[in-house]
Design goal:
Elements (H helix, E strand, L loop, with lengths): L1 H20 L5 E3 L3 E2 L4 E7 L6 E6 L7 E6 L2 E7 L8 E8 L2 E9 L1
Parallel strand pairs: 2-8
Antiparallel strand pairs: 1-3, 3-6, 4-7, 5-6, 7-8
């Protein structure tokens, strides 16, 4: 019983420390769907361009995109692939140990 309590307390403490030291809100706005050929904008915030990676892809492969920065806020822009549904584009943002993603369906 003591071991279980200490294990739970340790896990809780680690999760609280992780939440306190990791950046928050990586992706703050992203559409849930977009028509093929349309321009899509995803925004968010992180530690900054030096520690953040962005990947935009679908089932076919990587999608060209641009990332612009204003301080620690980013804007990702890409063109939704003009393929028939169902197709989903995943925007993946990594900042240190934090990862956030947005799935955008083709309509």
């Amino acid at each position: 019983m003591k071991i279980t309590f200490h294990l739970l307390a340790t896990v809780l403490l680690m999760s609280l420390l992780g939440a306190a030291t990791s950046p928050g809100g990586l992706i703050t706005t992203a559409p849930s769907s977009a028509s093929g050929g349309s321009q899509v904008t995803v925004t968010g915030s992180s530690s900054g361009p030096g520690s953040t990676t962005v990947d935009v892809s679908d089932d076919i492969g990587s999608i060209p995109h641009t990332v612009t920065w204003d301080g620690n806020r980013f804007t990702i822009v890409f063109t939704m692939p003009d393929v028939a549904p169902p197709n989903t584009v995943t925007v993946l943002v990594k900042d240190g140990n934090c990862t956030d993603s947005a799935d955008i369906r083709t309509t």
